[in-house]
Amino acid sequence: MTHADSSHSDSSRREFLKTSACTAGVLGAASHLAASAAATSTSPNEKIRIGFVGPGSRGFGAHVKRLTMLQTQGQPIELVAVCDVYSEHRDRAAKHIEKETGHAPQKYEDYVEMYEKANLDAVCIGTPDHWHAKQTIDALNAGLHVYCEKPMTKTVEEAIDVMKTWQKSGQVMQVGVQSTSLPVWNQVNDILTSGKLGKVLMYQTEYFRNSAQGQWRYYKLDPQMNPKNINWKKWLGVEEGLAEYEDFDRAVYRQWRRFWPYGSGMFTDLFVHRTTTMLKGTGLRFPGRVAGAGGLYLEYDGRSVPDVATVVADFPEGVQGLVTATMACQDTPIKQLIRGHFGSLVFGTGEQFEGFDYIPERPQVTRDSKLKKEHIATTPVVDTTYAHFKNWVEAMVANDPAMCNNDPALGAAAITNVILGARSYREGKIFHFDDKTYTISDGNSSWADQWEKRSAERGTPNHIAGWKAGDHGSVLEEPDYMKLAGPWKNGKDPSAG
Length: 497
Hints:
Blueprint: H1 3-24, H2 30-37, E1 48-53, H3 58-72, E2 77-83, H4 87-101, E3 106-108, H5 111-117, E4 122-125, H6 129-141, E5 145-149, H7 156-169, E6 173-176, H8 184-193, E7 200-206, H9 232-236, H10 250-254, H11 266-282, E8 289-295, E9 308-315, E10 319-326, E11 336-340, E12 343-348, E13 355-360, H12 363-366, E14 374-377, H13 384-398, H14 408-427, E15 431-434, E16 439-442, H15 446-456
Parallel strand pairs: 1-2, 1-4, 2-3, 4-5, 5-6, 7-10
Antiparallel strand pairs: 7-11, 8-9, 8-15, 9-10, 11-12, 12-13, 13-14, 15-16
């Protein structure tokens, strides 16, 4: 379908989608969005018009190439526009789309102009982190569906703003943590909520890397990267208040993840991957308390982000999460796993799984001698990035935000965990987070106080969302000799009756 042939159909569809979005806007949560969208799926004869913002590195290799593949395979999408401040990237993306689909997309330098003029239904955002929130919110407010590369935003406050804007919009939005499209995490959640591990206590995960030249410096610099071909002021976002002006530097442009104003190093490039999947598997979301640690111990190449880091997040459900790594040693990572009182699930490393191990605790704890170590098979996915984009397209076709495997509610929770860890490292503080008001405060004794009070009152544990196992693996035995315990008031033995 050409642009001229489809203009009337596109206009009608967009008006229809805007009406649907307004109807859904009164609803405050993603689960309610699905109900409002169920009756407004896209007709098989209509095509979703998609534009790209930032089709550079991953924006080209993942966004453009996978969606081009999906279009040529018959999915009801049309890749109609590309926007980048670097002319070489604009031209490369446009040429690829034209070669594969037979239709040349429109080219833009300013995403605002593309949103206004390209007659879009959806947009893919692959720009540096500091642009994500603004470009996403502008798209949602324009009635567009959104695919935003991870991390969803640069700050916690931006993440909450994106989540709330999405909830009001009724639009379909996918955050680009492709491993959330692996079936294993829904499978893990079913196992955990069934009580197989007993009370869930901890998760740990990692993303170790190593290189001879330093992390992210393998992104090569090119003479064509210069102010003649790159709108540097626009890339920085000076007029938009996103960054302060600094002189053009090819290393900053190409390797921006090394510098705090534009990225957050491993916290948002790598930790967000593993944290998001652990949140999906456990059902955890926003933390109650976060601490970060680390330092810049080897990679003295002008970067500002650390090369060793750890984030520890404590959750109101009574679970602790840990993510750790160094960018200067890769072959001895810790294992990814989830621990419970009665056993653990061990995933090894990486994010491609054909299965994982269940390791029970000893019978003296579980009181079940029949429990044995077992390998649990899962469905492998050959190309998680392809699967993730296909999931987004299918959700747009159905106009059902709840179909996305990584929606902004999960995206905001992941950002809160990793960014508070980064802030803790940089500011030397512990942070508390209130998941009812979405507010951040400096740490104090209240986190420890609440658990100590519960123990003194002989309370019961909190559980992950969806817990179905009652007290299984969550209650301590009371030995007979504990009848001898208690304070001796006025010198009297409490066990004497």
